[in-house]
Amino acid sequence: MAQRLALQRLLALPTRGPLASHGRAFGTSAGRRNTFNVQDGSDFQDRVVNSPKPVVVDFHAQWCGPCKILGPRLEKLVSKLEGKVLMAKVDIDDHTDLAIEYEVSAVPTVLAMKNGDVVDKFVGIKDEDQLEAFLKKLIGA
């Protein structure tokens, strides 16, 4: 009942006029298209291992404080590269098998992958300059 009432209220929001600005607009940006959450092992294989572009893989967890700082910082820098590199986000609690396969023993762990191979890696938090250098090395810039 409460969900139905909430949905009715949401659908009743005006789309024009002074109250329309209180609604939330949704859009897609280039940064969002270059960053994705891995759904399962098959998705990882398709979108990361088989990717024609280099991929940064962010192994993180919801409970990890440093992950909450690193993730957005990394996403911002990946979006600045305008599609030259993709970013895959892997929650280790949801995808323990991938964490084990890629020998993730601490979070955040970030892998740089090219043509399905891990070519670089770091564990822990990095500042923006270090992340930029990591990404430039990955794309060969």
From TrEMBL:
GO terms for molecular function: protein-disulfide reductase activity. NCBIfam families: thioredoxin (TIGR01068). This is Thioredoxin, mitochondrial. GO terms for cellular component: mitochondrion. It comes from the Eukaryota. PANTHER family: THIOREDOXIN, MITOCHONDRIAL. GO terms for biological process: cell redox homeostasis. The keyword Transport applies. Keywords: Disulfide bond, Electron transport, Redox-active center, Transport. Belongs to the thioredoxin family. The lineage of its organism: Eukaryota, Metazoa, Chordata, Craniata, Vertebrata. Pfam families: Thioredoxin. Residues 24-140 form the Thioredoxin domain.
